[in-house]
Amino acid sequence: MLEIKNLHVEVEGKKILNGLTLTIRDGEVAAIMGPNGSGKSTLSYVIAGKEDYTITEGDILLNGQSVLEMAADERAAAGLFLAFQYPLEIPGVATMTFLKAAMNAQRKARGEAELTPGDFMKRVREAAAKLGINLDMLKRPLNVGFSGGEKKRMEILQMSLLDPSFCILDETDSGLDIDALRIVAEGVNALRGGNRGMLVITHYQRLLDHIVPDTVHVMAKGRIVKSGGKELALELEKNGYADYVEAA
Amino acid sequence: MAAVLPMRTAAETALIERYHTEKATLPGAAEARAVAFARFEKAGLPSKRVESWHYTDLRNILREVAPAAGETQALSALDFENLPHRFVIANGRLAEGSAPEGVEVLPLSEALKAGRAAIGAAMGEAIDSVVDLNTALCRDGLFLSVKGDATLHLAFAEFVEDRRSVMPRIIAEVAPGASLTLIESHTGPEGIAYQKNSVVELLIGDGAKVEHIRLNAGGDKALMLSTLAAKIGAEAELTSLNFTTGGEISRHQSFITYAGENAKLRLNGATMLKGRQHCDNTLVVDHAVPHGESRELFRSVIDGEAQGVFQGKIIVRPHAQKTDGQMASNALLLSDEAAMSNKPELEIFADDVVCAHGATCGALDDNQLFYLMARGLPRVEAEALLVEAFIDEALDAITHDGVREALARRVSDWMRARKES
User: Fold this and answer.
1) Predicted TM-score (pTM) of this structure
2) Residue of A nearest to B364 (CA)
3) Among A11, A51, A85, A93, which would you mutate to test the B interface (most chain B Cβ atoms within 10 Å of its Cβ)?
């Protein structure tokens, strides 16, 4: 469960989040929609632990525990995963090396033994096959020269291997054509279920046709201004955000 | 108008006296030594007024010359896996080792006395005071004549208990078509301000291949001056990597001359500095003939208040058409006080060439770090991963797996030590 309580966030003195409150229960898939500049990406970075933000008020709790004092890697080990809107290119670091380092770092932080090379390879092979990822691609430096679709599939591969308890998907549909979108959405849907909660951040209704949310929240001027079921997304697609932005 | 010479420093006076005292007992090459000494006597130690020494003011750094180190047994020296043939050069003299087939190895003193080794022949048009000093005063080292396919490790080790100086010299002749992998490692005691001025000369015959790797793991108070001088024959290939983590003040200079057409050069550097270390990589690549190819890639990681220097000069002579030269120096600064000076230079006198250079300097990318941390890597591990990848590109030139792995391990050890301090 993720609880965001009255969150106020500034960047260089400029207020971005303005008393945002939102609870996502175990197993729930929530969507946040909102216009450009409403603070959606800031919210995802703040939850994941990026350091450029000043939290002036409020709290974020993951499974009942505040994460504000935790560094990004500690939050990851606690079960948080952010699928980036723009996954970073890491020249010189083979994707496979990175995956192993990440999985073992999280295991170490949780006091678990490192994976054996055989166990690691088995997990990677299975997860890659489901997403149609060629193993040769995993020998290449992480995300370097990957297409938009390949980068997003790589994010979902990481999500599947790291097995988080809560996932944030930041504009996962950006830069994807219809086919790539379908593959990525299927990958996400396969990870739904159990206690795993998800927060899907998007501009467009389009993604929500593929990843159908349980709840939809409208964000404007740094807070949630309306919440509802999945039908709210359809309404937004028809009428736009203007009414909500004015009301906020 | 008479030239105004600065007053001689105590170090310069001591070096001049040393030459006069030792002249009669120096092994061989009397004429070459006299010429080099005359140049040194005139120029003195290079100060920051000498352009190629601007960032490493040796005249100011070398206040006193330490007495020459004495003969010693090899107590311990660095070893690499999969390198069966190792020569230990203790305090500048051959202490032990066995030559592989296809290589003749002689103490340099013997080769010079017998007139077998042409000292300074690999320098081409280059003139340098530190090389002149070594030429004038060096007592020993090795002469290698390579006719087959050989891999050799020269483990230079200093065994001194107080300030001493060593000036070893290696002269290697690689016959046409032969191939040589030459690894030189330099180790010495911590906390002792010993002074080293080593010169390696490579005379590379037509079609020969040389891979040269130098590891500077000198003591933390050492002055490490080193030179690679190479003359590359037609269709020949030279790859050289200078890997530095040691020394308080280090300067590695490379003087490369193309003696034949269609030769290929790859000159790389990997430098990791911390504390108040200073390391200067200076190179002059002289395309004296057409159709030469050169690639230079220098990577520096600088922490603490350390200072890195890169000076790269590519000369393309008027007739050296179709020269293809690419040079890059990239530095990663890990602290606010770390500094890097990059000075790439192209001197092109031919009109049909492709030459480019690039230099960058920056910190680790915060967004990349955040990305790696968001996947669970603690900051120190994320930083280590990025730094290792950065240096690794410069190590890419090495084809000897054992040495490459050993150097990569040194990179991660360096990062681990940084985390612990």
Assistant:
1) 0.92
2) A90
3) A93
